[in-house]
Amino acid sequence: MGDPMHVAFVSAHRRSRAAVERALPEHASLTVTALSTPADAVDVLAEQAVDCVAVEHAADGTDGLELLRRVRDTDPAVPAVVYEAANADSIASDAISLDVTDYVRHGEEATRSPRSPTPATTPRRPTAPSRTSRC
Questions:
Q1: pLDDT digits (tens, 9 = 90+) for 59-89
Q2: Which burial class, exposed, middle or buried, applies to 76 when counting CB atoms under 10 A from its CB (0-12, 13-18, 19+)?
Q3: What pTM value is reported for the model?
Q4: Cβ-based neighbours of 128, under 8 Å, separated by 6 or more
Q5: Domains defined along the chain, listed by start
Q6: Helix H segments across the chain?
């Protein structure tokens, strides 16, 4: 089956980080590193093999666009997923202009099947050159 996919998840909210650390490995072969700041994510990206960066963009917490910019500056090939929290203003067009791999709005996650292959659950390491097939 191979090595588990390493996902760096960033959220200013402790509860979100804990929920993701518990839930994601149940749906796929994933190792989750939960981080509270974009700076922590950039450090992890520079020091470890990360297959995907996921960020919860929230009006009262993490700036998902800023992290997306920093990820693209650090390693443009790393897939990045932005999850827009319920209380955040829509950043979809800005995220797309920054070449986000996937964008999920609050409420949409329930309509996605965790068992179906998506860009966010396809490992990056083996060989695939395209960002979409690696996250």
A1: 777 788 999 999 999 889 999 999 987 766 7
A2: exposed
A3: 0.76
A4: 122, 134
A5: 5-134 (3.40.50.2300)
A6: 14-27, 38-47, 64-74, 92-97
